[in-house]
Amino acid sequence: MTPILTALLCLGLSVGSRDSVQAGTLPKPTIWAEPGSVIPMETSVTLWCKGSLKAQKYVLYKDGYPETWEEQKPLEPKDKAKFPITDMTSVYAGRYHCYYESPTGWSEPSDQLELVVTGMHSKPSLSVLPSPIVPSGGNVTLQCGSWRGFNRFILMREVEGQPSWTRDSQRAPSGEFQALFPVGPVIPSLMWTFRCHGFYSNTPQVWSLPSDPLELLVSGVLGKPSLLTQQGPVVTSGQNLTLQCLSDVSYDRFALFKEGTSDLLQLHGRQTQAGFSGADFSLSPVKSSRGGQYTCYGGHNLSSQWSAPSDPLDILVTGQLSYTPSLRVHPGPTVAPGENVTLLCQSLSNVDTFLLSKDGAADASLRLRSKYRAGKYEAEFSMSPVTPAHGGTYRCYGSIKTSPYLLSYPSVPVEILVSGSFGHHGPPPTMSSPTAAPAQGPSWYLYVLIGASVAFILMLCLLILLLVRQQRRGKCRKSTGDADPEPKDRGLQDSSRPAAVAQEETLYAAVQDSWPEDGVKLDHWQNTQDEDPQVVTYAQVSHSVSSLKWVLATPLSSLSGGLQDSEDRQAEEDRWMDSQATASDAPPDVTYAQLNHLTLRQKTSASSPSQSEEPPAEPSVYAALAIH
Q1: Model-level pTM?
Q2: Of 251, 247, 294, 255, nearest to 269 (Cα)?
Q3: How far apart are CA 178 and CA 181, in angstroms?
Q4: Burial of 308 from C-beta contacts in 10 A (0-12 / 13-18 / 19+)
Q5: How many CB atoms within 10 Å of residue 240?
Q6: Contacts with 215 (C-beta within 8 Å, 6 or more apart), sequence order
Q7: Which long-range contacts (CB under 8 A, 24 or more apart) does 329-333 make?
């Protein structure tokens, strides 16, 4: 029996060896996941294993588990099987491979499939150095970081079939865990959008939430747009602020970038009736974080090609520092073209940089480093030579070097008036730094023109009045020439007369009444003549009334040893004025009245002559009344 047993043993070994060789020679299946191998937490995924048409069953294995993970019968036409996962969790995360069994044996194992679950930890941050705006062919560095202490970070590009990059994390001086990924050269023909995740080394298939997407803009390929704001570059907290990016190129989308950040705000472009494309980026309400330097770009959909950057626009937020500087102008606020003007900005508080702003200017303001003098920080902004475009209202602010876009409260405004600049809107002036746009509004020249016009009108009116007055005087003189040259005594004689004196004076007085019904004013001069015993006074009275009714010659009271009481003389003058106003018959234009006047040095007589006797010679006063 020994030969028989030996033969059977050899036959069994031969069959077992043949079956093993045949099982190893079957082609290996293919494994994949739908919709992908990186699955967010609590979502579904399906694993597929595809083998031979002769397969009888498919088996799924997971690394780390000795037993079969799952077994499925093939689907028609029996060349594949699916393994569904309805609720993805960290339990399903790991590496998988599959087999299939045929009548001839088992296939070789498939390649490994790494199934990742995301969202198990908070997301990291993704930024780019130095800027997300990259020139064609340039290189950048992407930085993925988190405070959670991840051991590794993985960077993924959002393009199907593109590889991912994994880096060990490093702890930065700030305490954050970071990993740096060099990227480049960047070419316009590809899309450059990235995300990153963090994970721990003991659970490499359990990732954090994905970071926000970061797109690299390949700039300089297309024409640059313009960036502007209607509110001006200097704004206050709480104010509304909108930045407009405009271009004459028909762009589909626009991007706004703030220097020093990786933020890239994108909006769809709109077409204007004027043939421009643009987008409005609202930064309302303004807060301190809005301060900075901005640029914008234009681009097309489904392309990484972007325009060249717009000119930078500085946004400055006032009221962020507690002090208020002062502003003075030398030599004065009103200057002529060609002169030199200096604006002096000062502060008692510590200021690194002073900024001079002009109302209505659309561009950046002037900046000068401060100097410490006599206990104050100051800066001098010179305008040399002054042009009409320098006219306008100015304010100054202070800032510190650590926050150059956060300003103090504004100074009291100072207005510069350039003579001869009315209506001028010329190009920006030349100063010690670039200046703002020309100011608007009325200038000093307008006030001078108005004043000269008013003075001319007043002088013209005065000349007309003088001509009318001269004409009326001519008429009065003509009427006077036709009247009786010899005056008649129409006055009343005084009932008493003092005795004659040894020496008398001759007194002449010219009397002119400047106001109607206000009496007369006498300007007299005295000439002493020893040989003439009488005192004769002549008075010419001009009265500005339309018609003179009549003149009453009123005798003057005699003086006895002195002047008559002032109240009596005033009563006599009032009665004379009343008689003028109530008279009914119009006399000639010129009336002469003889007035009795006594010398101041008369002596008192013992008795008075009767009215029936002929009055002695008396001092006489004649008054010529001329109507104007």
Answers
A1: 0.53
A2: 251
A3: 10
A4: middle
A5: 12
A6: 132, 191, 192, 193, 194, 264, 266, 304
A7: 329/414, 329/416, 333/414, 333/415, 333/416, 333/417
pLDDT value of position 242: 94
Series of mean pLDDT values for 10-residue runs along the chain (628 residues): 41 36 68 94 95 91 89 88 94 94 91 95 92 87 94 89 87 94 86 92 95 87 88 90 93 91 85 86 92 92 84 93 94 90 94 91 80 93 89 94 94 90 44 38 56 86 88 68 46 39 35 39 39 40 36 36 46 52 43 40 38 43 41
Residues contacting 296, CB < 8 A, separation 6+: 225, 227, 243, 245, 254, 255, 256, 257, 279, 281, 309, 310
Could you identify the residue written with the tokens 């009326």?
472
Q: How far separated are the first and last CA of the chain, in Å rounded?
A: 179
- Give buried/exposed letters for 385-394 (b at 16+ CB in 10 A, else e): ebbbbbbbeb
Place of tokens 């762009």: 251
Residue type, 373: R
Q: How far apart are CA 533 and CA 531, in angstroms?
A: 6
Q: Tokens 């994108």 label which residue?
A: 266
Encode burial over 202-228: b for 16+ CB neighbours within 10 A, e otherwise.
eebbbbbbbbeebbbbbbbbbebbebb
From the list 357, 534, 494, the residue with the least C-alpha distance to 439 is: 357
Enter the tokens of residue 274: 């004027």
Spatial separation of the C-alpha atoms in residues 365 and 355, rounded to whole Å? 6
For residue 258, the model assigns a pLDDT of: 92
Q: Can you name the residues that pair with 540 across neighbouring β-strands?
A: 624
Give CA–CA dist 81/435, Å, rounded: 75
State the pLDDT at residue 402: 92
Side chain identity, residue 78: K
Which residue shows structure tokens 């009103």? 334
Sort strands 292-299 and 313-318 into parallel, antiparallel or unpaired: antiparallel
Q: What angle do CA 571, 575, 576 make, to 5 degrees?
A: 115
Q: What pLDDT shows up at residue 382?
A: 92
Inter-residue long-range contacts of 520-529, CB under 8 Å, 24+ positions, other chains counted: 520/573, 529/505
For residue 252 the two structure tokens come to: 């589909």
Q: What are phi and psi of 14, to 5 degrees?
A: -65, -40
